[in-house]
Structure formats: C-alpha cells, structure tokens
Amino acid sequence: MNMALLEVQDLSIQFGGVKAVQNVSFSIDAGIVYAVIGPNGAGKTTLFNLITGIYTPTAGSILLDGQPIQGKSPDVLAKRGVARTFQNLQICMNMSAVENVMVGAHLRLDRNLFKAALRWPALKARDLDLHAEALELMRFVGLEAYASASADSMSYGALKRLEIARALAMKPRLLFLDEPAAGLNPKETIEVDALIRKVADTGVTVVLVEHDMKMVMNLSDRILVLDYGRKLAEGTAAEVRRNPDVIAAYLGAHA
Length: 255
Known about the structure:
With 255 residues, this protein is of the alpha/beta class. It has helices at residues 44-51, 74-79, 97-108, 113-118, 120-140, 156-168, 186-201, 213-219, 237-242, 244-254, and strands at residues 6-15, 18-28, 33-37, 59-64, 67-68, 82-84, 174-178, 205-209, 222-227, 230-235. The strands form two sheets. The protein has a six-stranded mixed beta sheet with strand order 6-7-8-3-9-10, sandwiched between helices.
C-alpha cells in the first residue's frame, strides 16, 4: 500500500479557550485535488495555517512523506515542496507581474545575499533563467498578455491567477489554495477552475478551501467537511453530497 503524501493525525489547536481545530485526521494521496469545506468559522483557514507552518498545533501530528513537519516554518516547508496562496491577495503592487512570479522562484532558491554579491555575473545569468521560467508560468496560467504589465494595472481575476503562478514558481508538490475563486465573476471562476485542473494534471497535489460549491463538487477527488473545528465527513463529492450530517450543517443552509 502506498504511503499518503500528507497525513494529518488528531490535529488540534486552541486560541485561549477556543478550540479552533479539534482532533482532525485525514490523509491526502499524491496527484489528487482535495477540498476542505464547511460553514464560516469551521476552521478551514486555521487548518491550512497549521499545515503550512503559520501556526504550531497544540496537539497532533502532520506528516509529509511520513516525516513530521508540524511546527516547521513556511520557508523550510517551501524547500520540502509545500506552497500556498492566501484568501487576501499577497501581490507586490509596486512590481511587475513577471517580477511577482520571480519572487516565488527566489523563495525556492534560498539566496544568501552576501554570496550573491560575490557572484554577481552568475546571479544575473540565473535571474535571466528565472525570468524565462516566470514568463513560461505566466503563459501556463493564461497571463501571457501581461508579460510586461505592472501588477497594479491588472484585474482582480488576473491577480488571483498571478498568485497561483508565483506559488507554482516554488515548484511545489503540494499546493494549498485558500479561496482561489473568492471575489471572482462567473467567467473568472471558470478560468480558475480550469487552471486548477491543469495544475493537478501536471502531477501537483492541490488542496483547496473554497466556498463555491459547484466548483468544489466539479473539481475535487475527495472532500473534507469541517464544522466548528471538527471533522464532520470525508469522501468523494457524491458521498459528501448525500451525507445527512453535511446536508444539515452546510448544504441545507445553502439550499
């Protein structure tokens, strides 16, 4: 039996007396699209923050390839192949679109500035490579038209895809997308849906938090449902859709 790429066991965190995530366990196989859903305040983003090193759990373990990663910093996790986007855009508006993507590659290639200063010609050559790589990623996410644009001239939907390109520049094996369709119009949502599928087709494992149920049901191989920080259900879209607890807690409220 193959080992799961990511395994979460009895994960909990509390802030003060509030148990934001409690005893959550699940595993994610390589190469799938895995969605985390649940009502507002269910603990979805907190779960992402625990796995991607922003928070340290109060209890439980997180294994990547069978190795514990709980409490490791985001830059250490980036080197292990974990990247993410955030609910709120984290784009540098005073940089060009392509420079924003290059930031992702810089995060991957931990660069010591002193060493870099001593090897300036080599660094510039590498930056040319990174520039070419960033342009290729912009093509991949459908933003080739913005190759020379500044970030502040781009639409919100384009910036969302730029953020995905930057995360991909880190060459992740595991990509966490926190509400990639939030704030998008229907056309932009379809574009992001297609892009996530395209990313998954390259072999990157995608984990997303998303409120757009249609998108989640269409895209996901497996779905985890959280409610008040607890695991309510897990399964395929069809299984989750039929689960009476889920209908009561979540889908019923949206029906």
